[in-house]
Amino acid sequence: MPINRLVLDSVFCSCAALACGHERPFRMKRHFWAWAMALGLAGPALAQTALTNPPLLRVMTHSSFDLPKPLLSRFEQEAGVKLQLIKGGDAGEMLNKLILSQAAPVADVVYGIDNTLLPRALASGILAPFPSAAGSAAQRPAQARMADTAGADGVVGGLVPVNYGYVNLNIDTAWFAQKGLALPKRLQDLSSPAYRDLLVVPNPATSSPGQAFMLATVAGLGESAAFDWWARMRANGVKVVKGWSEAYYTEFSRNGGSRPIVVSYATSPAAEVFYSKEKISTSPTANVFMPAAVYRQVEGAALLQGASPTARAAGVKFIEFLRAPAVQQALQTSMWMYPAEPGTPRDPVMQHAQEPRSFESLALADLKSQAGRWQQRWTQVVLK
Prior knowledge:
Layout (H helix, E strand, L loop, with lengths): L31 H7 L5 H9 L3 E6 L7 H11 L2 E6 L3 H10 L8 E6 L3 H7 L2 E2 L31 E13 H7 L7 H4 L8 E4 L5 H14 L1 H13 L3 E3 L2 H8 L9 E5 L2 H7 L10 E4 L6 E10 L4 H14 L2 H10 L3 E2 L24 H19 L2
Helix pairs in contact: 1-2, 8-9, 8-14, 9-14
């Protein structure tokens, strides 16, 4: 998720035509002729036509979706399809587009709906059931569940967990060292005069990490105390921006801004090491894990209602592909999330992305009934 976000909207990606320098081992048997015969294409000429003009699989993703192109190209070859990746903006914006186009679906599969957006996705009826064949991703255990109501496989309403991460505070260590200011240990510290004008947060109404952080405060402090804290933060100069990219790349002091505390991800320090121009062994940023300020974000993929039978079958393969070993390892340093597939080896750089010992969470029932009201209350308290 963090660091290499691509803010693109409705981008078409013909994966086989793109090159990428992040190639990782990925072996798949090619079933081109078997695929052609399964469609009843008996003659060599017709089979060749099927291979050169494969059916289209439309996949809507949030703007942070990023996998090595050779992996995507291999999937196209294996599944006998042509991928159309449609970048729908931030996860919330992406979901809005899918709901608004429900009468004439613009995609067959979605990736990037997270546990904070799950109630809206379920209420809209856009998600289709995922077949639970033996050994499929809907049957295997997952490292993180989409909601508290899920079983060991983590699936809820057809949404299959693919990866997970933690939304929490990041700090610019050099700034704090230079100023001689102690790191905050509690949320209440941030509302004191010593930390005035130091925090930047993404707006919960337009940003999924912003929403996750707001939910963490409610889950950890309780509704009344949480919004009292937000009111004190407004008085203490908290800055609100539209999305994560603006918060991290524009306002965060590590990147030239004036705010040394930012809402980001537990993997952000690892990404700083990974993308550093100089070889470094210590990240210039650090996680601050404090009560009521850490929320686990679980992202999933699902089939969408309205897909053709051919697209639905290919969509199942794509979701299984997202849980394949090579993809689960690659997404750690392309989307900066933790793998949902148990037993996936961690990339060495993830030693800088420690997981918190505890985090906040909310029951699906509470999210369904209260999340919208909490967001409105936040807007009233912090922005109006």
